[in-house]
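Entry:
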Amino acid sequence: MTTQNETKDKPRKGRTVWRILWGITQLTILFVFMGAFFAGGAAAGYIASLVKDDPVRTYEDVSTQVFSNHLTGFAYFNDKALIGQLRAEEDRRLVKKEEVSPHLINAIIATEDRHFYEHRGIDPKAIVRATLQDIMGSPVQTGGSTLTQQLVKQTILSPEVSHERKAREIFLALRVERMFSKDQILEAYMNEMYFGYSANKSNIYGVQAAARGIFGIDAKDLNIPQSAYIAGMLQAPSRYIPFEQYNPTGLEAGTKRQKLVLSHMLENGYITQQQYNEALAYDIKANLAQPRERAYRQYPFLMMEIEERAAKVLVDQDLANDPTKNKEDLTREEYRELLDRKRGDILRGGYHIYTTIDKKIIEMMDSIAKNPDNFGPNRTYKARFGSEYKEVKDALEEVGATLIDNKTGAILGFAGGRNFEVSQVNHTMRPRQPGSAMKPLAAYAPAFELGILQPGSVIDDAPIALENGAGNPPHYPANWNNKFHGLISVREALRQSYNIPAIKAYLNVGIPEALSYVEKMGVTTLVTPKDNPRTNDYQAKTGVIGGLTQGLTVEEITNAYSVFPNQGSFLDAYLIEKIENSDGETIFEHSIKPQTVFSEQTAYLTTDIMRTVVQRGTGSALQKLVKGNRDFAGKTGTTNDDVDSWFVGYTPEVTLGVWIGYDIPYKLPKSQPARSTIVWAKFMNGLFELYPERYPENSKFTQPEGIVRQTICSKSGLLPTELCRETGAVVTEIFNRKFVPTETDNLHFKARVIPYNGSFYLAKAETPDDMVKTRIGIKSPDRLDLPNNPDKYNISFKPLDWDKRLPDREDPRVDDGNVPAPPQGTSSQSGKLTWTANSEADIVGYRVYRSTIGSAFEKVGVVLQPHDKSFPLSQQGVYYVTAVDVTGNESGPSQAIANDSLLPSDSGSSSDEDETNAGPDSSTPLDDILPLDPTQSSNSGTSNNKPKNQNGGIDIPLTPPLPNN
């Protein structure tokens, strides 16, 4: 039984237990608060210690890093049609939020950050969950990053995994949320995140590039299943790439991930159950984007050139606008560094680059370059590398070609090479020796401009000795056929591409003056004394025939030739028409700036002599190769050992240069015509077929005012004299009116010449006329510049017109004061009268006399001293010979020789006139050397006394009488 006291104690005990429990609770709460406070402080301190070295970023710094994306750039043809995206490893295209499908936005938020619009940059619950999973080593790591944190990690921080980076990420996410709106953050996120590979295996950044690269549509057109697939790729982009050629299991893994995304969308109310079911049934594989050939695979040479040139025009523009910098003061290395930096900007900056390239033209040229039938077979050969020879295997016969619009300088198309996979060298931009294609640029056009030469001017194609350094023997350049052709016109010299006239013209102009014109025509590859004081192109006297330090590029020489059809004005060739930045603002636009190099008259004269090259010269094969009867001009070029082959030519509208050769120089296989000429014709025919109206067949070069025609002597280039007319050396040529010749021909002369010791000399005044020949010939303008040992050259140094040149020295033979002795040893052999040459040094020739029955002796022929001592016995009779010296003294007669082998059966015989004409003409080799003056008279020196016997017959003396002198 319970007592009263016990009854009173029960509520007291209950209250005590409650108080104890409450006290414990209070203490627990206190400890929790203290622990929380302590933990929070520790956490705060820990975070502060991790981010203490992180710089304080301003709004501008954060904005620049978050919103400045690497953007995909694009290039365009001259009709604004897309070439393709620039040659970058990534594809990134910016979009605004309103340009993105709401399904994709919902899919991203439902999967990556469902509380995005609620938090302030971080999600504490997600962070705690991720932290516990990390501490406990959970196999499932859900991650605790918000969209803001992911954006910070992608744009500002490095990808390293560490507590320090995570702390910085949290700290920066909180700052970003205070700086920018949710829509700004979401837009930046969608433009920045990585989505794996596209159908063309380019790296995808941003939802627009993902939509184009995965499904071939814009981001605004994505449906629910497509949106879910792309949003699912954010977790592990490489794992979910849906293209089998890059990831065989990617599509399967990606569709599983897509299903998870769709479930999140359903849970968060973004889609209905029906939409969920329909999305699961959607065939992702059937709707994937198809791979297509990328621009840098379809047009590799072009895309490389676009990048290089775009960088160059922007760098040059920056330098021109910066008063503190001067391009001329930069070293090549410094300038190259600026170009490399700018190229990087272009590849990442979302630029739009508009070019001058015509799509049809470059594809036509590329197809010709790739066709092996247009080139020689691959070759294996040994080439010199330094001091040793190495084998080059299976080398391609390469091509480089550039087509330029004359009126603008725009590059319409080019062929950089035959196979980019074999050689990545753009052969239009690599210098090679130009050979004879240099002659119009460095020799003839400058000489025309200065009035030194005109097309009809005459140059002596005769040997020339060029200094070859102290202590070295001189160098004797030769022509391609190892012959010297004598006095020829500039037109003829270029028509046959002779070297010696070009060298002489080049030296006459002066190397510095000549090369200054070449540089004005856009050539930048010349090595100047500033570049190399010891070895440079201003020292090379053979630079005009291609002996340059580096050579010229195909583009530069083509650009230089375009000056001539452009009336003497230089327009720098260009490929970049306009550049726009990612905002569509024009930051560069090409402007045409013509610069006068030559007068219109010089340009036309140069064109006209290069017309001759293709009409009947070294390029004449083009008359059959080029379709239609077109007006065009050009020049061939071949280097030593045939390692480079060129043809550069033009119509009134376009200029095309073509080079053929091996990357590692080696002799090209023989081709008639040259391969460069054949390929040039193929390119031009392709152009005419593409645009017949733009390049009409009847287009002609226009002759400017100031061009006149003038009759001249072809051997001097001066006004003709009667002597020049008598030789048939009169031609009509065109001139710049300012430089028409006013002097008369001073080369043609009439002179008495005589042979001696293998050479010809001017005859002495006292030498009888029948011992000499009066000739109209050319006064040699120069003595031959011969080497000391000409035999080692295996060529003849005498010009081909040497036999037309009059000697400039008098006969060196001196009269000994005595009458010559009669010739000895006369006899008749094989129908010829022969005798022994006199021993006197002053003998110049012999006279032959004949007597027939009943007549006195008469002179019937002359034989000059250097020739065989014989005379043909073409008539019956008695013959004797006399010797004549340099002053006209004649010896007594030799022993008489009777010739009766031709006595006729009747009394008839040939007339004396016929005999006299037959004899001297047949025994005078000089007629084969100089033209005979038809007005020349002969001095017979014979006696007309005819002693008769008593019966009225003609006495035949046993000893012939002396002839009258």
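The first strand starts at residue 74 and ends at 76.
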